[in-house]
Amino acid sequence: MKKILLVCDLGMSTSLMVKKMQEAAKARGINAEICAKSIRDYKTAVAEFDVALLGPQIRYKLAECEKIANQHNKKIACIDMMAYGTMKGDKVLDQALALIEEA
């Protein structure tokens, strides 16, 4: 099972993206747990996931979050702004899966 964490300021604006990504994973037959958390919950939550993706609105926190991810040997990146803005769950799923494969 692939475990993907989406992170935004309050954990709410990524909820629709989680749904879109879950639909894309199901359509492809990929067993994935995808959830959204707030940046406040990130520090403890990241250890439970294979990869974390930051919402574009908090990309300025990437360096800070990378330090925490590195402590847990996890990959992290910012969600592609165009894919996020157009709610392309399949594209964001591809981004997460590519990061998992890099690990």
Total number of β-strand segments?
4
**Oligomeric state of shown chains:** single chain
Largest sheet: 4 strands, parallel
Cα(first) to Cα(last) distance is 15 Å
Mean pLDDT, nearest integer? 95
Concise description?
The protein is α/β, with parallel strands linked by helices.
Helix and strand topology:
Elements: E1 2-8, H1 15-28, E2 32-38, H2 39-45, E3 51-54, H3 62-71, E4 75-78, H4 81-85, H5 89-102
Parallel strand pairs: 1-2, 1-3, 3-4
Helix pairs in contact: 1-5
Characterise this structure.
Helix content is 49%, strand content 21%. By secondary structure, the chain is of the alpha/beta class. The model has no long low-confidence stretch (mean pLDDT 95). It contains five helices and four strands. The protein is globular and about 35 Å long. It has a four-stranded parallel sheet with strand order 2-1-3-4, with helices on both faces. Helix 1 crosses helix 5 (89-102).
Features of the shown structure:
four-stranded parallel sheet; single chain; 21% strand; 103 residues; alpha/beta
